[in-house]
Write a structure and sequence with these properties.
Layout (H helix, E strand, L loop, with lengths): L6 H7 L2 H6 L4 E2 L9 E5 L18 E4 L2 E4 L5 E5 L6 E9 L17 E6 L9 E5 L8 E4 L4 E4 L1 H7 L7 E8 L2 E6 L2 E7 L7 E6 L4 E10 L2
Antiparallel strand pairs: 1-15, 2-5, 3-4, 4-15, 5-14, 6-11, 6-15, 7-8, 7-14, 8-9, 10-13, 11-12, 12-13
Length: 220
């Protein structure tokens, strides 16, 4: 039997100051199932005749208490509920590819978190995207939502941990502002954001990636 979500155990061993920082958060993943989430996956159709049935592979699942994407058809794993002002925290890591990789910045692993999603049946819905690629983790990209963004590549390079190690991301949304932290360092900012409440979605772009300790706090 694999371990359950590490979040409750994490709270038990944190010093009081850190526990206070986690006050008000609730877990969105218990390490056992995806009851807080829904899946949209699109299978490639090259070489398939019209009307021919297609078996869609579900790219997201639970392995040893972690949320895992194994690649396969591109798609989204999105929250059942919609959110507008919140702080969203999670940890992530990529699997190191086989063979020798001398320069980790050349690793092409890619994913991301989409905010304010109201078209979850699309692979690229209108949203504000927080990069999940290893090279640009935490950078903010507008996908049809008006916003002024600022990226701090130097802070990201300093904060990012080596490939295959766990990294922690925090996304804080308040009013028309979004701030993204990578391992405690601010690496992305957005202002003038004009968006309504929407789902939060993890992207599958075909690269194996793991997530854990996924939690959210609604902000007033």
């Amino acid at each position: 039997m694999g371990p359950r979500s590490l979040y409750p155990l994490l709270l038990a061993f944190l010093p009081q100051e850190a526990k206070d920082d986690e006050e008000g958060f609730r877990s969105l993943f218990d390490g056992k199932d995806l009851r807080e989430w829904q899946i949209h996956a699109v299978e490639k159709r090259e070489g398939v005749s019209p009307g021919e049935p297609i078996t869609v592979t579900i790219p997201f699942g639970v392995e040893e208490g972690e949320l895992v994407c194994r690649g396969g058809p591109k798609g989204l794993l999105y929250t059942t509920e919609k959110h507008r002002d919140f702080t969203f925290r999670f940890e992530w890591r990529y699997e190191k590819p086989l063979g020798v990789l001398k320069d980790e910045t050349r690793f092409e692993g890619d994913s991301g978190v989409l905010l304010f999603v109201n078209e979850p049946d699309k692979v690229w819905p209108k949203s504000l995207a927080v990069e999940g690629s290893f090279r640009e983790a935490g950078a903010i990209r507008s996908m049809g939502i008006k916003a002024t963004v600022k990226d701090d590549a130097a802070a990201r390079k300093k904060a990012r941990r080596p490939l295959a190690e766990w990294n922690a991301t925090e996304i804080e949304v308040k009013g028309d502002k979004v701030a993204v932290k990578l391992n405690g360092a601010v690496v992305g900012l957005a202002s003038g954001v004009k968006a309504e409440a929407g789902h939060i979605a993890f992207q599958n772009e075909g690269h194996p990636i793991h997530w854990r300790n996924i939690r959210i706090r609604e902000e007033k």
